[in-house]
Q: What sequence folds into this?
């Protein structure tokens, strides 16, 4: 079968100013920076086995409504609205090793023992940070599931160095790829997993000035695979899926296998929903529900005066979704991992004493399906983070899945209505950018990259947030491999010199 075009290696790096078909809103003048695997094969003939292990490449889209600077580009001049585009590999230690033919394994590539891999994580944590871009204080960071983060220049996309935890706060060998930002304070939180005879999830906060503070820790018998978590103004929620790793195997000879295959699916454990209070660091609830698996928490909020913690989560029945992301299966057209549904979980913290003091054991959890059609990489407006939201945006697929997402959707969680946009291409994650002067939750635009079917190019599509119809498009000079996540940074703007 012909390889799917979204899983090719892109070795070309370029910087160009792209003309826009349609019109950009005047207020859209920042940058979308996307992150994902740019190459799956390297000089010397080596290659990776899994989508998650491709070499990190950043893509920057800087919006220039009216092209006020006259935007001279490397290939001509643009009048009217423009997008300044640049893509670049992250020149990390992993990148240099891969180019030298010395790539020794990642998430699901390269067989080793669990003990050997975790010792490697301790000595020199993995730095192929290909999942998301984030801003911490004045630093722009590329992140993966390692505590080792890579600083980069948001204009040139050059690597500026590594950013690792300092001080006496507890750390782990793995970290959630997705930091969560509290918009009220600007504080970012994350969860790290420390493996040992007593394993723990360490929750820490990063203040706007870059200070790292320990929030609390949760002991666990067998650490789960965690890609993200949920955040509300008062609580951190860890969904401990039953994809577990036995830490006692650290101290015994182990079998040779890719790192992710060291985890085992144990559905009889169910899914433990750990709720940790951000101020005290105490666990106030840990009810267990049915066994599910998921990568991405959509958003979370509180209601009933804080007694109920509500969070939306993309779920699949089990962890076989990870196996479906091996490149040989994806290139053959097997996309089972995309067929997630959007579920809403409500943890009632309980209050047996009527004092507002919640105790472990008093809580319960319920689950409701908001949308049972196929979705992937769901997001909400950043203006609704940690607050009640109405709209969810996601890649749109069939269930069961028979091809890559051919559209993106807007889900109304109040009515259950889903509005879809497709242009015949293959879509990645949609990112909502709110109008800073808007007064509706869907007043803004949705940004998504689409790979044109049967063509050798991708396009950036700008959709109206309310009507979910196309208002602008910029065609890229090449076809972009399917990436992971993007962030919009309003402060990263076009340089007035017009030079790229």
A:
């Amino acid at each position: 079968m012909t390889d799917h075009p979204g899983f090719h290696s892109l070795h070309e790096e370029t910087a160009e100013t792209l003309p826009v078909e349609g019109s950009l809103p005047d207020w859209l003048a920042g940058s979308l920076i996307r992150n994902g695997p740019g190459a799956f094969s390297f000089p010397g003939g080596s290659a990776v086995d899994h989508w998650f292990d491709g070499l990190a490449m950043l893509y920057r889209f800087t919006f220039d409504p009216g092209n006020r600077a006259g935007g001279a580009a490397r290939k001509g001049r643009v009048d009217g609205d423009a997008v300044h585009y640049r893509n670049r590999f992250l020149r990390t230690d992993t990148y240099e090793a891969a180019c030298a033919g010395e790539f020794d394994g990642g998430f699901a590539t390269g067989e080793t023992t669990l003990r050997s891999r975790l010792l490697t994580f301790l000595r020199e944590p993995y730095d192929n940070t290909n999942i998301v871009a984030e801003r911490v204080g004045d630093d722009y960071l590329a992140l993966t599931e390692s505590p080792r983060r890579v600083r980069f220049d948001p204009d040139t996309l050059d690597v500026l160095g590594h950013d690792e935890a300092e001080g006496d706060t507890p750390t782990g060998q793995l970290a959630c790829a997705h930091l969560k930002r509290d918009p009220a304070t600007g504080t970012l939180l994350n969860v790290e997993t420390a493996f040992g005879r007593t394993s723990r999830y360490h929750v820490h906060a990063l203040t706007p000035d870059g200070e790292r503070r320990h929030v609390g820790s949760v002991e666990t018998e067998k650490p789960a695979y965690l890609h993200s978590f949920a955040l509300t103004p008062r609580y951190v929620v860890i969904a401990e899926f039953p994809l577990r790793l036995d830490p006692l195997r650290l101290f015994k000879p182990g079998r040779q296998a890719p790192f992710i295959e060291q985890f085992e699916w144990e559905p009889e454990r169910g899914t433990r929903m750990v709720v940790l209070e951000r101020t005290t660091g105490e666990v106030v609830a840990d009810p267990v529900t049915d066994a599910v698996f998921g990568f991405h928490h959509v958003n979370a909020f509180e209601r009933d005066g804080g007694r109920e913690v509500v969070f939306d989560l993309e779920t699949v029945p089990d962890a076989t979704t990870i196996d479906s992301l091996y490149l040989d299966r994806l290139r053959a057209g097997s996309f089972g991992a995309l067929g997630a549904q959007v579920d809403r979980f409500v943890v009632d913290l309980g209050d047996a004493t009527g004092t507002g003091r919640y105790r472990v054991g008093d809580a319960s959890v319920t689950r409701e399906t908001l949308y049972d059609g196929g979705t992937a990489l769901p997001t909400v407006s950043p203006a609704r983070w940690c607050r009640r939201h109405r709209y969810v945006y996601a890649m749109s697929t069939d269930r069961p899945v028979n091809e890559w997402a051919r559209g993106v959707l807007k889900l109304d969680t109040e009515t259950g209505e889903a509005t879809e946009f497709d242009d015949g291409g293959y879509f990645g994650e949609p990112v909502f950018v709110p109008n800073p002067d808007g007064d509706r939750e869907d007043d803004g635009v949705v940004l998504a990259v689409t790979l044109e079917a049967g063509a050798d190019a991708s396009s950036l599509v700008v959709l109206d947030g309310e009507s979910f119809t196309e208002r602008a498009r910029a065609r890229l000079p090449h076809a972009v491999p399917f990436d992971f996540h993007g962030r919009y940074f309003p402060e990263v703007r076009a340089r007035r010199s017009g030079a790229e």
